[in-house]
Amino acid sequence: MQLYDFKMAPNARRVRIFVAEKRLDIPKIDVDLGSRAQLHEAYLEINPLGEVPALVLDDGTVLTESTAICHYLEEVCPDPPLCGRTPLERAQMMMWDRRVEQHGFAAVAEAFRNSNPFFTDRSVTGPMDFPQIPALAERGKQRFANFLNFMEQRLGETEFVGGVCYGIADITALVTIDFARTIKGRIGENQANLQRWYAAVSRRDSAQA
Amino acid sequence: MQLYDFKMAPNARRVRIFVAEKRLDIPKIDVDLGSRAQLHEAYLEINPLGEVPALVLDDGTVLTESTAICHYLEEVCPDPPLCGRTPLERAQMMMWDRRVEQHGFAAVAEAFRNSNPFFTDRSVTGPMDFPQIPALAERGKQRFANFLNFMEQRLGETEFVGGVCYGIADITALVTIDFARTIKGRIGENQANLQRWYAAVSRRDSAQA
After folding, report:
1. Subunit contact A71:B61, Cβ cutoff 8 A
2. What is the rounded distance in angstroms from the CA atom of residue A158 to the CA atom of residue A163?
3. Which of A155, A159, B70, B100 is most open to solvent, judged by the fewest CB atoms within 10 Å of its CB?
4. Closest CA to A63 of A18, A113, A128
5. Number of alpha carbons in the 13 Å side-chain half-sphere of residue B198
6. CATH superfamily of A2-76
7. Contacts of B99 in chain A (CB under 8 A)
8. DSSP A123-147
9. Rounded Cα–Cα distance for residues A98 and A168 (Å)
10. Per the confidence metrics, is the pTM higher than 0.90?
């Protein structure tokens, strides 16, 4: 297997952390998003949507979409389980992973891509250009603040985002919180549950990935 | 089990079609989004995000997020398989389901909620109000047009969106195409592969759900 990767891309980091937790050693190929290499013909042949990461299997099959890549790795390398251990745990983990994605990760991405000067005319990933929408950047910041409140409440009820065990929902949430630095988003000093959880998941070796 | 549902809600329809394909009989409880019943205290206790659908299990556990609900039903009722039959098929099905969601469904939702008069100040689902962003509606329409081109290409290569078998990615794509009527989005007359696929999936009994 080979992983098309870029160090600063948050979706790529989701997969890197997942791979590190599984103790897998997958060779990485750097796609320099800084020079827009993801839009060069060579990479568009791998992923026509021009998005990183992409996992290439030994027979040449390409998998994209970080969640699909992680679920594939969970199936072929089940230990340690990161997507839940029973049908109900898996459903709850997927539910929380998606809640984090939709209300956290997507909000930060909207805020970042619609305000950072590097993404002028690049507010959407992929080969087509779209101009930035400043109102969407503002909305994303507000939504991220709401997301932190929602997570603070959740983490007052459970040790980890997805339930009793560390898993993919924690990875998405950790990447989201760190990604939010790009929009000056931070966990509040009074958000004690989030602070406790963030310290715990950041301490894991995989967080360096 | 009980399913909190609303006939006109596209995410709820994704689950209804999935349930119909599985030939399951799950009692439905109507949440009248027309009168914003999803934001009443009674429903927010079921889903604090104020989103439909929600599946309540016999022990009272609540599952939300249509994809998580469908994957749960796939596990407890594996036949007919709708999420792929092998690890690789499942990964590819999930990859295509997410591509349809991100580039199709989300684009239509952005266009619809940011232009329809019913959603003034309600451009985002959930308890918090956000004003509409007209530029986002326009961007959504353009992205949906790109999505149709992408699907036309895909369906020239495979019979179904997710691969050789009908599955969850087809359901999300069908719901997306029908949802796009709200923004006057239509498959082009020259998009023959999409037309062929749409006729086939719409002919299934489950499409009435």
Report:
1. no
2. 6
3. A159
4. A18
5. 18
6. Glutaredoxin (3.40.30.10)
7. 49, 64-65
8. SSSSSS-B---HHHHHHHHHHHHHH
9. 10
10. yes
- Taken in order A169, A172, A174, A180, the sign of the CA dihedral is negative
Please say whether the beta carbons of A82 and A22 come within 8 A: yes
Range A87-208: architecture per CATH: Up-down Bundle (1.20)
Comma-separated ranges of CATH 3.40.30.10 domains in chain B: 2-76
Range(s) within chain A of domains with CATH label 1.20.1050.10: 87-208
**Kind plus residue range of the DSSP H or E element containing B109:** helix B106-113
ipTM: 0.97
Say which residue the tokens 């009074």 belong to: A190
Give the pLDDT of residue A164: 86
Chain B CB within 8 Å of residue A164 CB: no
- Cβ atoms of B98 and A69 within 8 Å: the answer is no
What is the per-residue pLDDT across B196-208, written as a single tens digit (0 to 9) for each?
A: 999 999 999 999 9
**Rounded distance, CA A191 to CA A179, Å?**
18
Token readout for B143 is 């992205």
Instruction: Label the pairing between strands B2-5 and B54-56.
Output: antiparallel
Beta bridge partners of A63: A55
Q: How far is B202 from chain A (nearest CA, A)?
A: 26
Set of chain B residues whose Cβ sits within 8 Å of the Cβ of A87 = 72, 75-76
Task: Provide the 8-state DSSP code for B64.
Answer: E
